[in-house]
Amino acid sequence: MSGTTPTVRRYTPAARANHWLTAISLVLLALSGLSLFHPSLFFLTGLFGGGAWTRAIHPWIGVVLVFSFAGLFVRFFRLNLPANEDAAWIKGLPEVLKGHEENLPEQGKYNAGQKGVFWGMTILILVLVSSGLVIWDQYFSQYTSIGQKRVAMLTHSIAAICAMLIWIVHVYAAIWVRGTFSGMTRGSVTAGWAWRHHRKWLREEVQKEQGGATPGE
Amino acid sequence: MANTTGVAPTMELVRQSATKGGISGPLPPSANDVAKLIDVSKCIGCKACQSACLEWNDLVEPVGFNTGVYDNPHDLTENTLTLMRFTEWDNPATGDLEWLIRKDGCMHCADPGCLKACPAPGAIVQYQNGIVDFVHEKCIGCGYCIKGCPFNIPRISKADSTAYKCTLCSDRVSVGQGPACAKACPTKAISFGTKADMKTLAESRIKDLKSRGFAEAGLYDPPGVGGTHVMYVLHHNDQPQLYAGLPNNPKISAIVEAWKGVTKYAGLGVLGLAALAGFVHHTVMGADRVTRTDEENGKRVKDGVA
Amino acid sequence: MTNSWTDIKNTDLVVIMGGNAAEAHPCGFKWVIEAKANRGAKLIVVDPRFTRSASVADLYAPIRQGTDIAFLMGVINYLIKNDKIQWEYTKAYTNASYIVQEGYGYSDGLFTGYDESKRDYDRSTWEHEFDDKGFVKSDPTLQHPRCVWNLLKQHVAIYTPELVERICGTPKVKFLKVAEMIGETSRPDKVMTSMYALGWTQHSKGTQNIRAMAMIQLLLGNIGLRGGGMNALRGHSNIQGLTDLGLMSNLLPGYLTLPVDTDRDLATYMSKRAFKPLQPGQMSYWQNYKKFFVSFQKSMWGAAASKDNDFAYDWLPKLDVPGYDILRAFDLMYQGKMTGYFCQGFNPLQSAPNREKCRQALAKLKFLVVMDPLETETSRFWENHGELNLSKPADIQTEVFSLPSTCFAEDEGSLTNSSRLLQWHWPAGDAPGEAKSDVWIMAQLQLRLKALYAKEGGALPEPIVNLAWSYKDPNEPAPAEIAKEINGSAVETLYDPADATKVLLEQGKQLPGFAALRDDGTTACGNWIYSGCFTEAGNMMARRDNSDPDDWGNHPKWAFSWPANRRILYNRASANLSGKAWDPKRKLIEWDGTKWAGYDVPDIVPTAKPDVVMPFIMNQEGVSRLWVRGLLKDGPFPVHYEPFESPRPNLLNPKLKGNPAARVFAGDMAQFGTSEKFPYAATTYRLTEHFHFWTKHNRVNAMLQPELFVEISEELAKEKQIAKGDWVKVTSNRGFIKAKAVVTKRIKPLICDGKPVHVVGIPLHYGFLGAARPGFGTNTLTPFVGDANIETPEFKAFLVDVERIDTGPVMA
Amino acid sequence: MQLELSRRGFLGTAAAGTAIGAFGFGGAEAALAASIRPYKLTGTTETRSTCPYCSVACGVIMYSKGADAAKGKRGEIVHIEGDPDHPTNRGTLCPKGAALLDFVKAPTRTTKPMVRKPGSDKFEPISWDAALDRIARLMKDDRDKNFVARNRDGATVNRWITTGFLAASATTNETAFLTYKVVRSTGMLVFDNQARV
Predict the structure, then answer these.
(1) Hey, which of A179, C470, C519, D25 would disulfide with C291, CB 3.0 to 4.6 Å?
(2) Which of B72, B170, B174, B197 to mutate to test the interface with D (most CBs of D within 10 A)?
(3) Based on the domain organization, do D197 and D172 belong to the same domain?
(4) Do C482 and D174 touch, CB atoms closer than 8 A?
(5) pTM of the complete model
(6) Contact check, Cβ <8 Å, C26/D94
(7) Three-class secondary structure of residue C146 per DSSP
(8) pLDDT, tens digit (0-9, with 9 covering 90-100), for C431-487
(9) Are C374 and C697 in contact (CB under 8 A)?
(10) pLDDT tens across B54-109, in order?
(11) d(CA B284, CA D113)
(12) Which of the residues in chain C have pLDDT under 70?
């Protein structure tokens, strides 16, 4: 179909860069975090130059993530606001998992699941940042009690697990739903992909194009 | 070799942080256990222990300021591994002032919270004689030990970003000597020997204190952390918190237990399950591919036909 | 100390008053803790502040500083009223039964003979009645109205517990508890020890403070026994040694005294130092004075001191005043009457009272020489450090030399500790830079002076050019050579006086002890009380056998204890008139029918019969003195006097200011403040983290107590709106200091005669040099007056005002 | 004497020398031995002394390294600790004694003779010879000028009271006696020591 398959622009280069920066940060955070989370994964500190480096770098990657994710948030939060079709999507989740999205109402740029990932990550990153600051001893140890730090430690761990769970869902969805990757690699998806998964969005894009409007993000 | 500390030199490693094997839970009592006994009722707060500790360990604590109290420095630091804490207490029962002076520092718990919390393999070790030691070459400076410790003892060095606390002078003990603080202590308020001997010594001290009207005198060897290898004789053992906030019934925080226990395993388990679920789903369902029909419909919309 | 540090473990009761042993002598205080832990001994602390010693005491009683005599006379009154007296001891071993001559009187705080214009007494009425043989009359039944016992009873009767509370601010119940516990030790099998230090000496009546407790110890029969005694805790490592060696204006080594103007020749000098026994059969050991003196002169001038020139008697300077002590020295300097001054390991700018007077005094010198291993404020007195040191260098014409000297780690020799123990030490390191030992420096000065006088002549060159100097290396005599010189040797071969053919000691040999000294110039000895320290058997001070027969803390083979390696002074008094120990469980020495023997070297001739020769052999009477005749300037009994600066009038006689017999220099009287302007009672002291002005140079000690502070009660803090850690300004009539405020429960206002007295505690230790935070010299505040007898400054009791300020010292 | 690791325990009685192997630090425990700081007094020379501070006169042991007998160097003191054989302190030390090394090595130790000239605002280095010659000259000039051979009554008094000497409180008895001889032989009366204060 190459050459002939029509595509729809899904992400601008800036958005893609922003996403991948966020993605890399998250992965590095997960790896470094996990290495300090369970002794059996301590070997992962090797990726960062050893335990001390891992400990030192992890929060700084977190800082990168915060800014990077903030960019994503500003870009995408409007599109992730609840929409009428979300309830039906959630109700029809089993159908989605079976690959029968056609049985559901047409979806906008993001379906309820993707919105879940978005808001889930937003909340968890907020939790991770605030708890992370509490346990970033190098600079902030004097501001909280050890009791508070302990709570932060546990919270940070649980939130990180949750974030990784969402990440797994996100990545798996991208793998399972073939054709998704090109949106984040080349910036566009095939019109067929859009038809199949985000038909409402496809129609809006086409309308905008015809109306001479610049494509929305 | 006449070993005058009466302490068998059993510096065998029985537990290392973030490492499989070794014992779990409190170190079981053994004849090899060593202990430092701090008899608060004999202590005059002279700070010789602090001085000896700095000199033996080649540490330098910067000159600070007077803030209206005798405690100097004002808290434990990476250089001050032991600190005299002064409390002035008007005893309501007698109407007399008591100046309660406690030497603070690592308690060398049988069930060390720091070791439990430490993520760096071998950075915190426990010897068979009960000494809990930090290995700086392996320490990553994460500060988890601080969160794990029920006594608020470890401190991270600004200079080398690793954690410091009293070693019970493991270097001296390993050659048959007692810790530098115990050696220096002018009034022998600090003694060192086998834990059994120290308990016997404590008993005689408690008897003396009771004869002087301290009915609640007792030994502080908190069971919540499996007992400690630094123990106190307190005149008011019913109120340890009088002594600059010595914890009443210290144990490893439930939060730390949760973090280093169930969360550690459950977390990894959940992640593994999620990944497995994806794998199973993919295997069962196959990929969700865009069909030719989808492409055609898409093209139609794109072309403005629909 | 009459006893030793280790002997304290044998006591039943420790009274720490006039000191703070836990703070200033932690490792000696160990033995108090040992006595408590192993014998069930009790500890009483009486102090204006709840000190580190008090923190481990069984009983703490507060007292207003400078009122110790009232307290102690109150204790004597209690002991007498409650019959808590060791009667056998008191009757036999004190002068309780001695009769005082008619004419003696006491009223309103003054004894007979006072001359207000001279601030001195005519002490002639304070004498005993003598019989025609020159022996003191006594009444063993203690019935005579003028026997010492009855005079004492009368003298202390006013010091009731109520008066003690009114003067001292000590609550009556606490005072009575203390008195009761002390009284318990009147039993022959109970012993109390007194541990005191500068808290008693640094008063205008310091000597009498100590006498008061000594009297109590005698009445209780606690002198001479294990675990008893009067234990002065000396301050510095060799302050005992320097005093023993007579490095004071009026002394020769071994507590011999320098001649005064009227001692025109040796015969006159000796006639005043005959020490004839005042009771039949008594030893009066000072009868040997001439042997000690002549042997000393021989050690000074060798062959140049001969019979022909009265053993160079004229070469000793004669005193025209009682003494040129440090206060008089600085007063003369202040008046511009001095040219040069040497400070050898001494930092008087920080240590002497009224710092500003001392600073101005130093600026009037032509030259100042400071020998010290550390930089000192004294050597830099001419520097400007803002408020901390107001000097303007351009205006100061003093030529100042700073000579670097070695410290303990780099030199060799002996130090005498509080237990009178001479211990030898060895060097381990090299002197830093060009630093030299004090011995080298002193030798260089002598050699240069000698050369100058030999060449140029000048005022009386003889004592300088003839000074005995037969050291192997004249430039730097070896410590062992000097130690041998101190011990003494035979100048000529010594023969047995009973058998002229029998050689006792060959010429040049070391003396075995002071018993071998002669008054004919055939022996030389630097310091008779140290004789025996370096004998033909070797250096006794270097002995390191720590064995301790029966674990009594005696350690007889460890180093050398003066006199004669005796560990407990007056140990003869540990046995009764039949020579048996008062307490069989505390045996020290006993009479075996023919001689004295036991654990210690007997403090008596070994063959002296117990019922004949009394134990206090240094006294002409053979017994101890509850009544001290005219030997002290300010009275035969102690009397309560307020400090020169006191928050309260003297309740015994409101007209009296301070000790009426204490010397006050012109101008200094006007410098005393009044309680109207300076309402708070201040005292100065040492902290355990520091040693004087040395350890502020050490980073560890500087860290442990980094900054000058003052301690005040919560009540005063509230009144003056001062919070913990605030800056405060403390002002006396002589100047001010700025320091951090430590607000503490350990100081509480004392209610004296119904009114609260606030105590302000001020540590020493800080200055403008060193590793600690720069701070004021505490002695900026202290008054320039000393004890009536020995001129130790009144550092412990003076008046100040306190106010909160916003910022610390203004430094240049 | 040379010190091989531990010599004694903390309570004071002597113990024989030993090496780490005696404590079971064999091959299996090599890792462990690495986790314990090497005993820092190994190979040092011990010298006995007494603490120079207060009058308890605690016994101390000074540990030094790098002695060079050929050059007459005693080496560098690396540690100071209580002498457990000493009957009074039994190895213990107070906060000052325990930090004696800091006194020996204080940055404010004096290391060369200095002179401050009249009106000057600084110390300047001076040689020992120049300093001592100058001091002796100042002493003699003052003594010759102000020495009192006889008082008003004509009695021989031979005193010198315009120059004074404050003696130390921590120098040795030997220093003190030599000081006494030198000072008293000049007829100096303004002579005192720290015992007074």
Answers:
(1) C519
(2) B174
(3) yes
(4) yes
(5) 0.93
(6) yes
(7) coil
(8) 999 999 999 999 999 999 999 999 999 999 999 999 999 999 999 999 999 999 999
(9) yes
(10) 999 999 999 999 999 999 999 999 999 999 999 999 999 999 999 999 999 999 99
(11) 94
(12) none
The residue type found at C631 is: L
End-to-end CA distance of chain D: 40
Q: DSSP secondary structure string, C497-558?
A: TTEEEEEEE-TTPBPSSGGG--SSSSEE-S-GGGTTSEETTEEGGG-B----GGGSS--TTB
Domain definitions of chain B by residue range: 13-252, 259-302
The distance of B306 to chain A (nearest Cα, Å) reads 9
Residues D63 and D98 in one domain: yes
Q: CB distance from B59 to chain C under 8 Å? A: no
Q: Token pair of B67, please?
A: 């803030």
DSSP state of B261: I
Shortest Cα–Cα distance, C23 to chain B (Å): 7
- Using CA atoms of B42, B43, B49, B51 in order, give the dihedral in degrees to the nearest 10: -130
- Residue D11 domain flag: no
Asked if omega into C563 is within 30° of 0 (cis), the reply is yes
| CA-to-CA separations, D69 to C437, C447, D66, D74, D75, in angstroms, rounded | 20, 30, 10, 7, 9
Q: Would you tell me which residues 174-213 of chain B have a C-beta closer than 8 angstroms to some C-beta of chain D?
A: 174-180, 182-186, 188, 192
Sole residue written with tokens 């040191």: C389
Same domain, yes or no, for D157 and D97? no
Cα separation, C115 vs C122, whole angstroms: 7
d(CA C587, CA C602): 12
**Do A48 and A19 touch, CB atoms closer than 8 A?**
no
Alpha-carbon distance of D171 to C344, in angstroms, equals 9
Q: According to the model, what pLDDT value does residue A212 have? A: 53
pLDDT value at residue C253? 98
Q: Give chain C's domains with CATH numbers.
A: 6-232 (3.40.228.10), 326-411+430-452 (3.40.50.740), 669-805 (2.40.40.20)
**pLDDT at B20 > cutoff 90:** no
Structure confidence at residue D197 (pLDDT): 81
What top-level class would CATH report for the domain B13-252?
alpha beta
Structural domain of D176: 147-197
User: For residues C362 and D166, what is the distance between their CA atoms, to the nearest angstrom?
Assistant: 13
| Burial of C455 from C-beta contacts in 10 A (0-12 / 13-18 / 19+) | exposed
Within 8 A of B4 by CB-CB distance, chain D residues are: 8-13, 15
CATH of the domain at D27: 3.30.200.210
Q: Enter the tokens of residue C68.
A: 């110790």
D88: closest chain C residue by CA: C6
- What local confidence, expressed as pLDDT, does residue D2 receive? 36
Q: Is residue D15 in some structural domain?
A: no
pLDDT in tens, A41-68: 999 999 999 999 999 999 999 999 999 9
Q: Tell me: do D96 and D25 sit in the same domain.
A: yes
Q: Count of domains in chain D?
A: 3
Measured CA to CA, the distance from residue C13 to residue C407 in angstroms comes to 38
Same domain for D117 and D91?
no
The ipTM, to two decimals, is 0.93
Same domain for D90 and D30: yes
Q: Looking at chain B from residue 218 to 277, which residues have their Cβ under 8 Å from any Cβ of chain A?
A: 253, 255-256, 258-259, 263-264, 267-268, 270-271, 274-275
* Residue pair B187/B42 in contact by the 8 Å Cβ criterion: yes
Chain centroid to CA B36: how far? 15
The interface residues of chain D toward chain C in range 131-190, judged by CB-CB distance below 8 A, are 131-140, 142-144, 146-147, 149, 151, 153, 155-190
Report the alpha-carbon distance of residue C149 to residue B165 in Å, rounded.
64
Residues in chain B: 306
Is the model's pLDDT at B129 over the cut of 90?
Answer: yes
Residue (of C39, C671, C795, C802) closest to C334 by Cα position: C671
